[in-house]
Amino acid sequence: xxxxxxxxxxxxxGIQPMASLGGLLREWLPRQRWFAGKDRPLTDLRxxxxxxxxxxxxxxxxxxxxxxxxxxxxxxxxxxxxxxxxGIQEHLSPxxxxxxxxxxxxGPLAGLAVYDAxxxxxxxHLLLERLRHPGTLGPLRFESDASVPVPAGLPPRLxxxxxxxSSVVYGDAFILKLFRRIQPGINxxxxxxxxxxxxxxxxxxxxxxxxxxxxxxEATLGVLQPFLxxxxxxxxxxxxxxxxxxxxxxEAHELGRAMAEVHLAxxxxxxxxxxxxxxxxxxxxxxxxxxxxxxxxxLRPFVGALRTAFTALATxxxxxxxxxxxxxxxxxxVLHAGREWFVIDFEGEPSRPxxxxxxxxxxxxxxxxxxxxxxxxxxxRHPWRPEWARRCREAFCAGYADRAGWDxxxxxxxxxxxxxxxxxxxxxxxxxxxxDWMPVPMAAIExxxxxxx
Length: 453
Ligand SMILES: Nc1ncnc2c1ncn2[C@@H]1O[C@H](COP(=O)(O)OP(=O)(O)O)[C@@H](O)[C@H]1O
Ligand SMILES: [Mg+2]
Description:
The protein is of the alpha+beta class. It folds into 3 domains: 1-117, no CATH class; 120-227, Phosphorylase Kinase, domain 1 (2-Layer Sandwich), CATH 3.30.200; 232-452, Alpha-Beta Complex (Aminoglycoside 3'-phosphotransferase, Chain: A, domain 2). Helices cover 38% and strands 19% of the residues. It is built from 12 helices and 15 strands. Strand 9 and strand 10 (174-178) form a beta hairpin. Helix 9 packs across helix 11. The longest helix has 22 residues, at 412-433. The radius of gyration is 23 Å and the shape is globular.
């Protein structure tokens, strides 16, 4: 019998289980794709909550502390909270070998194997059972939209995607996203799709079940949504078109229409009373530019010219009112299925504070994100085909204008400011994570700087 009974009662200060788990997790956490603070050593690990989901499976929230100064933009705060699902077994079956985190040497779990339970179909099956039966378990609350039945026994598979969270697909019918970095409050990736579903917006898969914690603070932990079978993401489709020499203008046009629909639905679903204040936006963008240039010397020669993109905001047409937006829009966040575009992943940039992600912004920010993404796609091919990206850009904006009633192409100053801000973010991101990709945003920086000169 597994010795999980040792875990009861859960100690309030978490000292006992961490005697077993602390050393193992310190090694394992920084190696995970979704661990954000890879640039600095993990110096502290504290248990915030632990719940036995079912025998042999523990749900943990841990707080990490890291030494060193975080880089701006991709900033990891000094303390970060992560959600983990750990399996505990005496003898780990060989098929779970890759999931092994290690064997505990000390504490109440000494001698037992600790592994990543998301890689264990038995655990992910039981997790779905938990979601199918709303209720309370310690600090955890499992809730659902009772009007959408979720069948039992859907076979689980862990998605192997380049993700900042972890997702499990159930029988090609549902997908469960487990948030990895947890911030207090409702996650916009639950809040926004629920609100859009309330508006009858069919562009976003509507959550059917979710779970959250009430301890140590209220926070969203996971969302189950319908899976779009046979869907391809926009990034894969764009690269395919580039590889075969096809245009992507019809798709980009439809995507523009879809995005305008989502923005319109968002504006009525989550109204915001904030008024457009381009001065504040310009100041924040300038601050981000200067901080990025501090970290990335290659940016420095362009700072003067780029700053003009932001100062121009003070005098330009204020543009559309601010509202809730997607917050991290690019071709990887849109799915094409059954001839329609769908928009997913409303979490925003996970490195930004939740309050900022949930506040109102200009929809131009999302548009600029997508326009930059066309440029990224076009730059994946040699020779570079700037015409391909330019046509996508035109088509996307035209499609957007069709539905939104205003044309992004007529908002030059706004677009330039938001594209510059996005390119600055990209430079910082690539400098930290993918230095080989630096030429992509740097080419945009040069172009945007010349336009300002
Ligand atoms: N409803 C869905 N139907 C089909 N595939 C999906 C769905 N939601 C997400 N995916 C797949 O999962 C990937 C990651 O989802 P996403 O919500 O963007 O997670 P993350 O927050 O980790 O980026 C997507 O790129 C897509 O391939
Ligand atoms: Mg995503």
